[in-house]
Amino acid sequence: MIRGLYSLATLAAQPLLRRKLRRRGVAEPGYLEHVEERFGRYERAAQPGALWIHAVSLGESRAAAILVQALRVREPGLRILLTHGTATGRAEGRRLLREGDAQAWLPWDTPQAVRRFLAHFRPRAGVLMETEVWPNLVAACRRAGVPLVLANARLNAKSLAQARRLGALARPAYGALSAAWAQTEGDAQRLRLLGAPVAGVFGNLKFDATPDAAQLAQGRAWRAGCSRPVVMFASSREGEEAAFLRAIAPVRDAAQWLLVPRHPQRFEAVAALVAAAGFSLERRSEWAGAPAAGPLWLGDSVGEMALYYGLAHVALLGGSFEPLGGQNLIEAAACGCPVVMGPHTFNFSDAAATAQAAGAASRAPDLAAAVQRALALAADPPALAAAQDAALAFAAAHRGAAARTAQALLALAPG
């Protein structure tokens, strides 16, 4: 009964979805591409039997890349179907495609659209990365006999509370999964409370990412040429940049500041914000070679986080200074860059706590305090070296999730 009402609501909301896509497409044209795929209608024929992986956005697509690499080591001829929900996720996922692979938008969660999706692609199995569990999609996979798993699964306390309020929808959806492979034991416990068939705690796939060696080396070479410490605000989110600019204004000459927004569609808005705050700005997109020293650099490129982490002595963790849950700190650790976190890391609470205990990260109550902590660490060479070593050790100690996930997935859905 409740899923029937939900289905009516998703059907009724389709015109609103189209309107939202048109609005978002003004800033991000990717949202205007292949719109009918959102409703289960496809222009090209599909070859059945691909392994379907859903990676909603940028972070999930990067985690999917790690899993795809591990899968292809074990099954070189594997064909992949990638689905996404955001334009940045789809652009990132496009890098993973080989001949025979396919890519599409995940359909809006109406019964009709998900049936058309499954009938068109006929995947051998499906993988939902991290958090994306949709009631009609899960039910349709169960009816069609398509094994569907939740991989690299995470569920924080806030999301659990929200799901429990919708228990009549959430519990059947989580319970109908073929398996859930959690990042941490805490995630596993919360998933079990929703009825998910947790079949293992495999760790976080992102620990298995290997930073781009050329980017890392280039960043470190540029850092060696800097006369001041480089402090980076990594993956900043809306609302955080203004507070960051206020925090560094009294100490603007104490460091070379590097600001890297999380979302590329905000690059222009952040550049305008920096200019309005009275800072001279040099953008990564305009660097002809080594960047010139100045009050602030703007990292307005995609796919170069290893370069930025190599360039930075210390990083402030975006998304953690507003109640947004924090961004991924694992990539920073793998590059040997210690981080200073804000109070809000509920999306990665276990990783944040473990990193802090290992000495790879520290915590500050707000951006002003975080800036001072970063400056103090950068000015103390022995402490900085210890934190950099701790970051590398922390990243190395938690690898292995990709191999465990790939092995379990191929056992569940053999080719």
| End-to-end CA span | 37 Å
CATH superfamily of the largest domain: 3-Deoxy-D-manno-octulosonic-acid transferase, N-terminal domain
Tell me the number of helical segments per DSSP (H or I, 4 or more residues long).
Answer: 18
Largest sheet: 7 strands, parallel
CA gyration radius, whole angstroms = 22 Å
Strand content: 5-15%
CATH class of the largest domain, named Alpha Beta
Helix content: 40-55%
CATH architecture label name of the largest domain: 3-Layer(aba) Sandwich
Low-pLDDT runs = none
Give the integer mean of the pLDDT values.
95
Number of strands: 14
Structural class estimated from helices and strands: alpha/beta
How would the blueprint of this fold be written?
Blueprint (H helix, E strand, L loop, with lengths): L1 H11 L1 H14 L23 E4 L3 H17 L5 E5 L2 H7 L8 E4 L5 H11 L3 E5 L5 H10 L3 E6 L3 H9 L1 H9 L3 E4 L2 H9 L4 E4 L11 H12 L5 E7 L3 H9 L7 E6 L5 H10 L4 E3 L12 E3 L6 H7 L2 E4 L12 H5 L4 E3 L7 H10 L2 E3 L3 H12 L2 H17 L3 H12 L3
Parallel strand pairs: 1-2, 1-4, 2-3, 4-5, 5-6, 6-7, 8-9, 8-12, 9-11, 10-11, 12-13, 13-14
Your description of this structure?
It is a single chain. This protein is of the alpha/beta class. The strands form 2 sheets. Strands 3-2-1-4-5-6-7 form a 7-stranded parallel beta sheet, sandwiched between helices. Strands 10-11-9-8-12-13-14 form a 7-stranded parallel beta sheet, with helices on both faces. It folds into 2 domains: 215 residues, Rossmann fold, CATH 3.40.50; 185 residues, Rossmann fold, CATH 3.40.50. The protein is globular, with a radius of gyration of 22 Å. Helices cover 46% and strands 15% of the residues. Belongs to the glycosyltransferase group 1 family. Involved in lipopolysaccharide (LPS) biosynthesis. Catalyzes the transfer of 3-deoxy-D-manno-octulosonate (Kdo) residue(s) from CMP-Kdo to lipid IV(A), the tetraacyldisaccharide-1,4'-bisphosphate precursor of lipid A.
